[in-house]
Amino acid sequence: MDRASREAKREFRKRGSARRELDLGDLVFDLPPPEPELSNDIDNNDNDININLPPPEMIIESNNKILSKHQQIIDERIEENRIDTKIKNKNTNKTKTKTNNINNKRISISRRSKSLKIKYRRLPSNKTKLLYTDVISQMIKDYIKSPIIIEKFLNKMNEMNKNKNVKKRKLNNDNKIKSKIKKILKEYYERINEYFNSLIDLQLSNSLIKNDLNKINFEKNNIRLQIFNIRKDRSNIDLEIKQIRDEFKILNFKYNNQNKIYKQLIRLKEGGEINNMSRIKESSIIEDIEYKLNKIETNLNQRENYINSMKTVNGLLR
């Protein structure tokens, strides 16, 4: 598919079920008041910058397609107007509902008559993306640089001069006025273009801010995930510390007992006392043993031999 066919396809593409229509009454602002005191002339040459224009064959082909399509639209409008007038003449005595339908049809025809075809080849060819502001700016540029608009502006200035009863001067000829009009319209277009450029810059800055916010949110989510993982690791470490503390308590208890026994053994070895108690005499111990043996002998009649032998041992110990 060549470039001209792509341009024609983009030109006549549909948005949804209906063709997008552009109304000059909504897009073109009121022209600024003329400034008759302007003294500097402006050249009649067009200062538009056309970079990387397509080949002439493609331009001619695109123009032919646009002209054929425009001719087709004109024929359709003529046919619709003819049918409309025919219906109007035949249905003068019909009901109110049918007349409303006819009026609606007329309104739709009048709306379609305000549609404007965009010449995409006149837009900058170095654009990577076509914006609505580019299309509207090109429409306004074509509108205010049209010879019809310049003539209309010239007539308006002449009427103003007549109303003010200003005498005609030799310097204020038509060419001079046209040059002033072109300068005014050029300044008007430059102001609009600056406004559109500011809108584009604002959109770009908003998109950059949005990207920065998305990055910040992404980093924030990553930090939150890291905090969650750190808290999880911290809880696991707390459990391990608790287990280690319990084990330490058990080992410390065992160590204290063993250390206590060890110190008691050291004291006994050195002939000291245990728990600050006086050393019990052997005679008192033997007497206590003999008392207990006698007590057992009174309670038990059997095993007398064992008891006698134990008494004998006790006597020997004395």
In brief:
This is Inner kinetochore subunit AME1 domain-containing protein. This protein is mostly helical.
How would you explain this protein's 3D organization?
- By secondary structure, the protein is mostly helical.
- It has two domains: 3-208, no CATH class; 282-317, no CATH class.
- Helices cover 70% and strands 0% of the residues.
- It contains nine helices and no strands.
- It has helices at 3-11, 24-27, 56-90, 96-113, 132-144, 147-163, 174-269, 282-299, 304-317.
- α5 packs antiparallel against α7.
- The termini are far apart.
- Mean pLDDT is 67; it is low at 14-52 and 109-116.
- This is Inner kinetochore subunit AME1 domain-containing protein.
- Residues 117-316 form the Inner kinetochore subunit AME1 domain.
- It comes from Pichia californica.
Radius of gyration: 56 Å
Helix content: over 70%
Quickly count the helices.
9
Average pLDDT for all residues: 67
| Total E-strand runs | 0
The rough form would be described as rod-shaped
Which class do the helix and strand fractions yield? mainly alpha
Strand composition percent: under 5%
Order of helices and strands: HHHHHHHHH
Low-confidence stretches: 14-52, 109-116
> Biggest sheet: strands, sense, closure?
none
Distance between the termini: 132 Å
Our count of domains comes out at 2
InterPro entries: AME1
Pfam families: CENPU
Organism: Pichia californica
Domain Inner kinetochore subunit AME1: 117-316
Strand and helix map with partners:
Layout (H helix, E strand, L loop, with lengths): L2 H9 L12 H4 L28 H35 L5 H18 L18 H13 L2 H17 L10 H96 L12 H18 L4 H14 L1
Helix pairs in contact: 1-3, 3-4, 5-7, 6-7, 8-9
